[in-house]
Amino acid sequence: MSLLLKNANIFNGKDNVITAGNILLAGDKIVAISSQAIPVGSNVQVLDLKGKYVMPGLIDAHVHITASQLDFNEANVHKGYMYARTFNFLRDMIRRGFTSVRDAGGADMGIKKSIDDGLLPAPRLFMSCRALSQTGGHGDYRHQASEMVTCACSLCSASSIAIICDGVTAVRHAVREQFRVGASQIKIMAGGGIASPTDKIDNLQYSDEEIIAIVDEARRFNSYVMAHAYTPAAISRCVKYGVKTIEHGNLLDEQSAKDMHDHQAYLVPTLAIYNAFKNNMSSEVPDSVVNKLDEVRLKALESIRLARLHNVKIGLGTDLLGDFHSFEYDELTLRSQVESAFDTLHSATYINAEILDMKDKLGVVAEDAFADLLVLPKNPLDDIHLFNEQEDNVLMVIKNGEIVKNLLA
């Protein structure tokens, strides 16, 4: 398919400017951008945008698309139900304008192949398969009453999100196994978390030797490691051992921010999930979550401010679960308390593409980039609240050069 987007105002994802121009798409790529008229043949569909705004498709760098409920302990969730919910989450994500997502634990090759084969409308998927957790770590969702297991091998975590592996040999095997089944990158649980029932936020998880081994395996696969970490100690040790992205990072301080900058690591804040839990408490939310929530929620915005102060590159993720997936836009608007609309959208496009190792291919309106684009009625750099669930301002979504949503027709 060839498509000419005519008379557009363009935010390219990289620069804090709007330029007027025309964009020609052919196949799955952007082939020409010009302020002058682009001559095309009769076989090219021409769409006059009449001054509407075009920007790159949004990227959510921290999702859990298989998380069909708010409790990660999915021992009693039927797989068919989980997959049906997953496909609904993906459809809604791309309709919101998220044309790529990075799954931080749970997605599998069956889901990815369904997307790649065009069986359902969905974002591009970059998946970690199962996140790696030590016994009793953030990825271990077994109840304390679960039977004790004493072997140092890969174990079921009572969740689709993670796998338990202890020891250097076991973590190397687990990394290789995730790549074998289709992982784009490796996710590790390097510190305590909110959703896990038996650990504390300030726990340091995995030994130095285990993290070094995991990073080594990922690098030899030409990939990288993303790490769940809240505390300064967890953050600093991860980046010193070569972890590329710190997920959440709410308790970041001056020294750990400096460490992130020095080691060229990225921060991926996830504000939406804490806000969703805080504003929508119900009996479905486990007590273990409620008791640990405020410990990290109240520091989240300060971590972004500190990261920017120390020139740490900041991506954007949401980490939403179950019905909370509908709050995806909240991540954009919550960030407006500490940064400009450009900063947020730059994170959600250009920087997230760097994180995915897709620089100049995704997250940018540029020639030879993939044709993943949004059409908006107003300038998104003027007000990030343009993105909201109450008023659908994403008028068109284009992924791979194909129109997957069109409210202009």
From TrEMBL:
Pfam families on file: Amidohydro_1
GO terms for MF: hydrolase activity, acting on carbon-nitrogen (but not peptide) bonds
InterPro entries listed in its UniProt record: Amidohydro-rel (IPR006680), Metal-dep_hydrolase_composite (IPR011059), Metal_Hydrolase (IPR032466), Metallo-dep_Hydrolase (IPR051781), OTAase-like (IPR057744)
Cited Gene3D superfamilies: Metal-dependent hydrolases (3.20.20.140), Urease, subunit C, domain 1 (2.30.40.10)
Amidohydrolase-related domain mapped to chain residues: 53-404
Protein name according to UniProt: Amidohydrolase family protein
Natural source organism: Lelliottia wanjuensis
